[in-house]
Each structure stands twice: as structure tokens, then as C-alpha cells.
Amino acid sequence: MREQDSIAVTTMYGHKLVNPNDILFIKGDGSYSVIHFKEGSLMVSKNIGAVAELLRDSNFIRAVSYTHLRAHETGRNL
Length: 78
Known about the structure:
Elements (H helix, E strand, L loop, with lengths): L6 E5 L2 E5 L4 E7 L2 E6 L2 E5 L3 H7 L11 H9 L4
Antiparallel strand pairs: 1-2, 3-4, 4-5
């Protein structure tokens, strides 16, 4: 899997380039998603599925819940 340099997302202020390595987590909010970084967050006009698709070539893991994320980290199956 290759590492992406950046993805282009649309905000209410226009387009912005985001480095996938700077993303802590993404929370879906209907037709929008909020991308959280160490230093703040950014609301984008794509649902979480569309944002996850933009990140398909990165190390992004789409976890349905914290339990799923912990299972992935420990190698357990749910």
C-alpha cells in the first residue's frame, strides 16, 4: 500500500488539501464529515463513505466503533 501525499476535500470555504497522516479520526455527520486533527477540525461536504474512498490508498481504517478499532489494534476478530 503506498502512502498518499494529500487528498483534496471541499469545505464551505472552497477546496483544501489534507495530508492523510495528519488525520486523527473522522466522524460522519449526515451528508458531511468532520475531519479531526491534532490542532482542530474541518467539516467537509462529503459523507464518511466518500471520505474513506479518498483515503483508500492510505493507512486509514474505517472503524464502526471504538470496539472495532481496539480489535484491529490487537488483532482480535469480533
